[in-house]
Design goal:
Blueprint lengths: L4 H48 L4 H45 L4 H31 L2 E2 L2 E2 L10
Antiparallel strand pairs: 1-2
Helix pairs in contact: 1-2, 2-3
Length: 154
């Protein structure tokens, strides 16, 4: 039996919140990928500098290790966001499948939505860790902002 137009309208209204969440995840992915691109560009510049200034090899290798660690955090955050986005999309699909086929997916929908929020929270925590690590490794002039060398833990 086809759904009445009012039920379809309500279903579309119910799917708007997850779609807005997808928009937020997409924005976060944009921030993370831009950050990763800057890390890669910086690493390439340091590798070139390593070739032309072998006398600074120790410091340049330390800086490259910091960038490698930062890139791992960013990659993890990107992965978490991507999986969260897939789960949010699955929520929308499950909402429609549940409404049209009466599959009793309320529990699955709730779990998918909560799971996506947990993954998104983990991505933000990972991003926060990367930012803190980047800040701890920041050098202005000859001095470290944190007082620690770039290779040390934040």
């Amino acid at each position: 039996m086809p759904l009445p137009a009012t039920d379809i309208a309500h279903l579309i209204q119910s799917s708007v919140a997850p779609v807005f969440l997808l928009t937020g995840v997409a924005a976060m992915l944009g921030v993370l990928t831009n950050r990763l691109a800057r890390i890669v560009d910086r690493a390439r510049a340091l590798e070139l500098r390593l070739e032309t200034h072998p006398e600074r090899a120790k410091q340049l290798h330390e800086d490259l290790m910091v960038l490698a660690r930062r890139s791992r955090y960013i990659n993890l955050a990107i992965s978490l966001c991507a999986v969260a986005a897939v789960m949010v999309a699955a929520v929308v699909v499950a909402l429609f499948a549940n409404a049209f086929f009466g599959l009793g997916l309320a529990g699955v929908i709730a779990l998918l939505f909560v799971g996506s929020l947990l993954l998104l929270a983990a991505a933000f925590i990972t991003f926060f860790i990367e930012v803190r690590y980047a800040t701890a490794a920041l050098r202005i002039g000859a001095h470290h902002v944190s007082g620690r060398p770039p290779g040390s833990a934040p």
